[in-house]
Design brief:
single chain; alpha+beta; disordered N terminus
């Protein structure tokens, strides 16, 4: 018997869940379980969301299926029909985009009815079937393997090694291949999305089962300890893939495999309700929990649900930014330390894409409006900010550091980051979570203008609203084939201080349960129910730091407008000074949620606008708040630091700005396995195991100090610093100065620089370590009392 995810959630064969809150008990009007209306039953009305779908559809149709299929054809011994794409599609993660693309085509077909998307999806599945048949053993993939000599070959080469127990995993690399199991998870999801959103597809199921057989053979050759070593390499939600394959086929083989794909190091603490997320790569974890949640739906094992729920609660309450995203430089930090991690490397889109998937799963188990308070926040303020709304590019990170512009993939560029893949999916399905049903109730979770068909009631629905810019939404039963008495639940956001509900223009009696206003009556065609919510301004502090704040209006995160993205921002971060901050905001345009401040900001007042619309602007989202007395102290400290920097500049002999092209050329930088980077507005460079970076610096007679700058929250690593091949220091970084850059001074022996005009400075990581990142190196003269 075939049992897909949607069918499973609708079935009566549900498993025991954790205790329901009182608000969701029988008789409240809120169902005990829920499912969304099918995406194909929802059509968006004009709005920013509908525009995003159409811009994304145009982007999808500009892509070439044959270019994405290049490696699949090549490694199956077939002649590619088009050149491979560049960017990540020309790296060892090649092929991951095809899975995303399949999902995006299927979702777009469901959301819009696009026939071309359906045709392309069918073509890709047919070609994958040919590639799998040509391989002859179930294998089908597009990823590559880079050998030690630098030769790039078919990624299939790694699996005989792994089956012999030769497993070399470094987090994202597995025997020279970049996250192959993650790659396959994307392909599985694409195949299942084709089946769910376009229609039954025997070829897609055959590909899924045939590939499953190949993967199962690899796992079967390994001991449990060897599997754990292999799972140290990011595997996406491959556990979800095989749980889903089991649900669709009934074959216990896939359930056994799904449960074996379990990373004990990361998941065991979560089953025990322990937050040990700090310093773990964030998006590596989220899909694992989605997979555990799917397994719980099948097995009923309580620890699987415990882990998923605990993870969600910890991430959303203690590890998330105001826009709903999480992680800095792709990694979780300690709980409640957001204020220390407001950088240009915040909020990887993949993380939020997956967190919203997890939210939908948890909601289906037990409807709770608080879950959709988070969903709305992240969907509106992060996902909508992730798309460049003219040409359809995508951000990788959504930076929250003041003055940082968003970097989007180019219109016809070939970056193909992971977030390009999740972006093309996210903006294909903005109608997927508006309407939910359960126990004959209709639930409105998102106030996005749309029309929908509720098949079970023979109803057509219309949701009219200008939300989030206006606080009113009206649901109308345009037709209702099966009239009768049933509940309609309208979500009341947790931030709303009050709400009003009307039926056909008259105040309605409602019950309150689980974050909803519920109207239960005999409904008929033409009936309309309206909810009104006050869109008040409010201040929200970051978790763990009451002095670092953001401004919201209803569900919208507001940002100070700092000018065009193609301009520069080199000013001090704006701060808020005063006792009643909101009193200093004046409405400029309520319809556009635009405000101006008066006498509030330092150094100057600013305009505030919705953050997600700032795609071509520079923004400030987070602000330090001060009283007038506190601000005077802050100014004094700032001036003292300026004086210190002036003295240091006067004594400098040479400065190396790492990570910047011209300074690195001027200083003759050479490197291996070394990469430039930008973090918190500062350029830098690191070197990975087996690599180095080296450059020349000018010297002068007399005692000198070599100074290097590091970020204070780096995970543990150690490396050597050499000057003219003589080791002058071994540096260990291990969260030395949380929340700040810091300098380390290395006095140089006089003999090392005597008679020289230049020296070579070299950074070399210890084995299985990184050197740096180093955010600049300076040589300066020592003060007389410093050295002897």
């Amino acid at each position: 018997m075939l049992l897909g995810r949607r069918t499973f959630l609708m079935s009566s064969a549900t498993v025991p869940m954790l205790a329901l809150p009182a608000a969701a008990q029988p008789g409240s009007g809120l169902p005990t379980k829920a499912r969304p209306l099918p995406l194909s039953a929802v059509r968006l009305r004009p709005s920013d969301f509908a525009r995003a779908v159409e811009v994304n559809r145009a982007y999808l149709l500009r892509l070439s299926p044959d270019r994405l299929l290049h490696n699949f054809h090549k490694f199956a011994g077939m002649t590619p029909r088009a050149a491979v794409y560049g960017g990540w599609e020309s790296d060892t993660i090649a092929g991951h985009t095809l899975g995303h693309y399949l999902s995006a085509l299927a979702l777009t077909h469901a959301q819009t009815g696009c026939a071309e998307c359906k045709t392309r999806a069918g073509y890709i599945v047919a070609e994958l079937a040919k590639c799998q048949a040509a391989n002859g053993d179930g294998y089908v993939a597009g990823f590559t393997r880079k050998r030690k000599d630098g030769t790039v070959v078919d990624g299939k080469e790694i699996f005989p090694e792994i089956m012999r127990g030769d497993i070399r995993s470094a987090g994202f690399d597995l025997n020279g291949c970049w996250v192959p199991y993650y790659n396959w998870h994307k392909l599985y999801t694409g195949l299942f999305d084709v089946i769910d959103h376009i229609g039954s597809n025997d070829q897609a199921m055959a590909i899924a089962t045939g590939l499953g057989g190949y993967i199962d053979k690899v796992f079967a050759a390994l001991t449990d300890e060897q599997v754990q070593v292999m799972l140290a390499c990011e595997y996406g939600g491959l556990n979800e893939s095989f749980a889903e394959l089991h649900a669709r086929t009934g074959d216990a083989r896939w359930l056994r495999l799904a449960e074996r794909i379990y990373d004990k190091r990361n998941l065991d603490p979560l089953t025990q309700k322990r937050d040990q997320l700090a310093n773990f790569h964030a998006n590596t974890q989220v899909p694992k929990l989605i997979g555990l949640a799917r397994l719980h739906e099948i097995t009923g094992k309580p620890e699987q649900a415990t882990a998923a729920r605990f993870f969600f609660e910890q991430v959303t309450r203690h590890h998330s930014y105001v826009i709903g995203g999480n992680a800095d430089r792709e990694y979780f930090s300690e709980p409640d330390t957001i204020a220390q991690h407001i950088t240009e490397q915040t909020c990887e889109h993949c993380n939020t894409y997956n967190m919203l998937k997890l939210t939908r799963q948890l909601y289906g188990w037990q409807p709770d409006g608080a879950l959709f308070d988070y969903y709305e926040r992240a969907h509106l303020n992060h996902v909508m900010a992730q798309q460049e709304p003219v040409n359809g590019g995508f951000t990788y990170m959504t930076p929250l550091m003041t003055g940082t512009k968003r970097d989007y993939s180019a219109r016809d560029g070939e970056e193909f980051w992971c977030c390009v893949g999740t972006g093309m999916e996210s903006h294909a399905k903005h109608g997927e979570s508006i309407f939910w049903t359960g126990d004959d109730a209709l639930i409105v979770n998102l106030y996005i203008p749309a029309d929908a068909t509720w098949k079970e009631r023979g109803a057509t629905l219309g949701l009219e609203t200008a939300y989030p810019f206006a606080g009113e939404a009206t649901l109308t039963f345009a037709t209702l084939g099966k009239s009768g008495t049933f509940p309609v639940a309208l979500r009341v956001p947790g931030w709303a201080k009050a709400h009003e509900v009307f039926v056909n223009g008259k105040p309605a009696d409602t019950t309150q349960a689980g974050g909803y206003a519920i109207v239960t009556r005999r409904w008929k065609a033409g009936d309309a129910v309206t909810i009104r919510l006050p869109l008040d301004l409010r201040i929200e502090a970051t978790p763990g730091d009451a002095q670092t704040i953001a401004v919201l209006r209803g569900p919208l995160v507001l940002a100070a407008d700092l000018g065009r993205a193609d301009g520069e921002w080199d000013k001090a971060d704006p701060a808020m000074v005063g006792d009643d901050l909101l009193a200093a905001f004046a409405t400029v345009s309520a319809e556009e949620a635009q405000y101006a401040t008066k006498g509030l900001m330092r150094p100057a007042d600013l305009a505030f606008v919705p953050f997600y619309r700032q795609y071509d602007r520079r923004s400030a989202v987070y602000f330090k708040r001060f009283t007038d007395a506190q601000w005077k102290v802050e100014e004094t400290a700032f001036l003292a630091e300026q004086a210190r920097q002036k003295d240091l500049a006067a004594r400098s002999v040479d400065v190396m700005h790492l990570g910047e092209m011209q300074p690195e050329r001027d200083h003759g930088l050479t490197s291996e396995i070394s990469y430039p980077l930008v973090y918190r507005g500062r350029n830098g460079r690191d070197a990975r195991t087996g690599g180095f970076f080296e450059f020349t610096m000018a010297v002068k007679p007399g005692p000198l100090i070599l100074q290097a700058t590091y970020w204070g929250d780096e995970r543990q690593r150690s490396f050597d610093i050499l000057v003219d091949n003589q080791r002058v220091a071994t540096q260990t970084l291990d969260a030395d100065k949380p929340g700040a850059f810091f300098d380390v001074d290395y006095p140089l022996p006089l003999a090392l620089t005597k008679g020289k005009t230049r020296v070579k400075v070299r950074f070399v990581p210890h084995d299985r370590n990184s050197a740096g990142p180093v955010f600049g190196v300076r040589l300066f003269t020592a003060k007389p009392a410093t050295m002897t």
